[in-house]
Specification:
The chain has 425 residues and is mostly beta strands. It has one domain: TolB, C-terminal domain (Neuraminidase), CATH 2.120.10. Helix content is 6%, strand content 33%. The protein has four helices and 29 strands. It has a five-stranded antiparallel β-sheet with strand order 1-2-29-28-27, with no helix packed on it. The protein has a four-stranded antiparallel β-sheet with strand order 3-4-5-6, with no helix packed on it. A hairpin with a 4-residue loop joins strand 24 and strand 25.
C-alpha cells in the first residue's frame, strides 16, 4: 500500500468528537442473551460466513458495550476480573483501559494514566492495543504510542505493568526507537515469566506501512531486541485478500480514491506452556508459523540463527487476528473470515470451538473463570469489534452496529502462564 493510501486509510478512521463520553457496558445476568437465540444486532454474514453446523459451543455473551469505542483486547484474571482496552483509532476514547465492574467500564488502574496527555506521552496511555495477565498477579498493558495508525510518538511506545492486588503501576518499559520503529504498530504480547531474572515478553509488530517483525523484551533490564525483521514469515502474504461477510476485505477510502489491499503483518501470537515454542501469524494471510522462543530471546543468537528455527505450519484455510495457548498446549485461533474460534489439534488439524453470525471480527482472547462462579469452570473470553465495518473498509461509512460484544465459550484447559508462580490476591 502506498504512503498516500496509508495516510488516507488512517484519516478515514478519524471521527469528530471529544473524549468526554464514557462508554456503557451491559452485563447479562444468569445466562440472559446466552447462545444464539437473541439477536443483538443485524448480522449479514454470507458466503464465507459462519461454521454453525460444526460448532462445538454456542458462545455466551459476557458483556455488551452499548456505546463508546470498540474494545480490542481482553484479559481475565484468576478471580474472574475482566479488563478491556480501547485503541485510539479515531473515535473518542475517554480512557484506554477499563475493568468491567458491576456492569460498568471503570478506568483502570485510574483516571489519570488512562487519559491522553500528548505533552507527556511517557506518563500516560496513548493508545492501547492489548492487555494480558502474566500469572504473577500483574496486568500488562501494550501502549502502541501511535494514534490513528500514525507515526509512533517519541517516548510513547511502552509496556506497563499494574499490580492486580494494589491496582498500582509497578513497572514501565519504554520500547526504544531502534526497536519500535516510527512505522511500528505494537499489537499483541505473550510472557514467559521463567525466562530471565524477571521474565521475558514477546510482541508482534503488525505494521501495515513498514517492516514487520517480533520484539523481545527482558523485563528485568528493559533490554529490547527486534527479531525476524521483515522476515517473510512476519509479513502479509503477497496477493492475499480475505473474505469477510462474503466480500473481499479491502481498504476502501471512497471519494473516488482506489481500493487497496489490506497488508497487515505479524499480529496474533501465542506461547506454548513450556515456553519453548512461539506461534505467530500475519493478519493478512492464512499461514501459521512457529519460532524457537529460546533462540529468539537469546542475545547471543544471530538473526540468521533465529530464522533457521522458523517453521511454516502450512495453510490454515482461514485468516486469524488473535492466537492463544491454554495450559494443555491447545492452540486457539480467531477466524475472522468465518465468525469463529478455531482449535488447532495436536495432529495439526483444525476444529471449531464456537461459530456465530454475531461474532463479527473476533479479535483477542483470554482464558479465565466467571467471577463468583465455579472456580474450576474455565471459559475462553473473546472480543468482537466489527472491524470490517469501519469506514476505512466501506468507502467512508461507519456501518458498525452497537453493541460491541465480549463473548465467552466453555473450554477444558486453563490459562497458560509459562514460568509463573501464581500469586493469590
Amino acid at each position: 500500500m502506498s504512503i498516500t493510501r496509508i495516510a488516507a486509510f488512517a484519516a478515514l478512521l478519524l471521527s469528530v468528537g471529544c473524549e468526554t463520553d464514557k462508554p456503557r457496558v451491559a452485563v447479562p445476568s444468569d445466562g440472559a442473551f446466552a447462545g444464539g437465540a437473541t439477536s443483538i444486532y443485524t448480522a449479514t454474514a454470507t458466503g464465507g460466513g459462519t461454521l454453525g453446523a460444526q460448532a462445538m459451543e454456542q458462545p455466551e455473551v459476557a458483556a455488551m458495550f452499548t456505546d463508546g469505542p470498540a474494545p480490542t483486547g481482553v484479559a481475565v484474571d484468576h478471580f474472574g476480573r475482566v479488563f478491556v482496552n480501547y485503541p485510539r483509532w479515531g473515535e473518542p476514547v475517554p480512557y484506554s483501559v477499563a475493568e468491567i465492574v458491576g456492569g460498568k467500564a471503570v478506568p483502570y488502574p485510574d483516571d489519570q494514566i488512562t487519559k491522553l496527555d500528548t505533552d507527556h506521552p511517557a506518563d500516560c496511555l496513548v493508545s492501547v492495543q492489548s492487555v494480558v495477565t502474566d500469572g504473577n498477579g500483574r496486568l500488562w498493558i501494550v501502549d502502541t504510542g501511535s494514534i490513528n495508525f500514525g507515526p509512533v510518538i517519541p517516548g510513547a511506545a511502552k509496556l506497563v505493568a499494574v499490580d492486580l492486588k494494589t491496582n498500582r503501576v509497578v513497572k514501565k518499559i519504554s520500547i526504544p526507537p531502534d526497536v519500535c520503529l516510527p512505522t511500528t504498530y505494537l499489537n499483541d504480547v505473550r510472557f514467559d515469566m521463567g525466562r530471565g531474572n524477571e521474565g521475558t515478553a514477546y510482541l508482534t509488530d503488525s505494521s501495515n506501512q513498514g517492516p514487520n517483525g517480533l520484539i523481545v523484551v527482558d523485563l528485568a533490564s528493559g533490554r529490547c531486541m527486534r527479531r525476524l525483521n521483515d522476515d517473510p514469515s512476519t509479513k502479509a502474504e503477497p496477493g492475499f485478500v480475505a473474505t469477510v461477510e462474503g466480500k473481499p476485505f479491502m481498504a476502501r477510502p471512497g471519494g473516488g480514491r482506489p481500493d487497496a489491499d489490506v497488508r497487515v503483518g505479524a499480529d496474533g501470537i501465542a506461547l506454548s506452556p513450556d515456553g519453548r515454542t512461539l506461534y505467530y501469524c500475519p493478519m493478512s494471510g492464512h499461514h501459521l508459523y512457529t519460532v524457537d522462543a529460546y533462540a529468539l530471546s537469546n542475545p547471543s543468537a544471530s538473526d540468521a540463527d533465529v530464522a533457521r528455527t522458523v517453521r511454516d505450519l502450512g495453510d490454515k484455510g482461514f485468516a486469524s487476528d488473535g492466537l492463544l495457548c491454554d495450559d494443555r498446549g491447545t492452540l486457539f485461533l480467531t477466524d475472522y473470515e468465518h465468525n469463529a474460534i478455531r482449535i488447532r489439534n495436536h495432529d495439526g488439524s483444525y476444529g471449531v470451538l464456537a461459530s456465530d453470525a454475531r461474532m463479527l471480527w473476533p479479535d483477542s482472547m483470554s482464558i479465565g473463570v466467571v467471577a463468583g462462579g465455579d472456580p474450576a469452570g474455565e471459559y475462553l473470553y473473546f472480543t468482537t469489534n466489527q472491524l470490517e465495518r469501519q469506514k476505512a473498509f466501506t468507502g467512508g461509512e461507519d456501518r458498525r452496529q452497537r453493541p460491541f460484544v465480549l463473548f465467552r465459550a466453555k473450554v477444558d484447559g486453563g490459562p497458560s502462564h509459562p514460568g509463573a508462580k501464581i500469586m493469590m490476591q
